[in-house]
């Protein structure tokens, strides 16, 4: 909800960004909660509760490792299709987390933001989101973003609408990245360097469609509640081995690093 474009965040398609050994921005699809619970003969929702413990651990570790932006996909725009009881449980869990976790995040210097179409949530959740964002707005440590009722297509469409409203004299040929991207819901962050999806599926499921253009994609069979610090470190080790060419040749990359 709080929005501000940071002009120092270069678009990967307009220029070649700086690359560090630790991802500056990590985006995660936290998948596999339901299967984790089913394997244990527990109701699926038990997996969501357990998944919140993993969130706590990974947020802490990312802060310690110097990740600047961590974005977690918590609820997609298509997750409303799930059984009403499961959706209801997830809403309750989201509300409780907003009530119980924010003080700890604040103490750890974490700045929290929530992206997605929040108008579909209960008034109470919407208010808590605003309060949590305001409470942590001054923090300078990890930038934690929760994507809730988020869809990559929704994001692009709302950005196009906002861009046209902000630039009423724009011509069809006048639409540029520079005019559009400030209206994407994560305009305050650089594009993700590393994407992790747990749970074994190798798909994007309508997550950050625009922003993942040059992101390194890492898939693990671990179910989200089983994903831990060791698994995070393994993904970072894999990331360090990638040659991020951004369209250039390998020789050019080596030359640019000299
Ligand atoms: C991810 O775990 C959490 C949400 C989508 C809210 P799932 O609930 O999708 O778990 P699986 O994929 O069914 O195991
Ligand atoms: C993606 O997981 C969304 C979240 C983790 C919030 P899903 O479980 O909803 O994705 P699909 O349906 O398997 O693609
Ligand atoms: Mg799933």
From TrEMBL:
**GO CC annotations on file:** cytosol
**What cofactor is needed?**
Mg(2+)
UniProt remark on cofactor binding? Binds 2 magnesium ions per subunit.
Binding of substrate: at which residues?
Answer: 32-36, 44, 48, 76-78, 80, 82, 197, 203-205
- The entry's protein name is Isoprenyl transferase
Keyword annotations: Magnesium, Metal-binding, Transferase
Q: Which NCBIfam families match?
A: PRK14830.1, uppS
Tell me the active site: 31, 79
| High-level lineage | Bacteria, Pseudomonadati, Pseudomonadota, Betaproteobacteria, Burkholderiales
Q: Which purpose does this protein serve, as stated in its record?
A: Catalyzes the condensation of isopentenyl diphosphate (IPP) with allylic pyrophosphates generating different type of terpenoids.
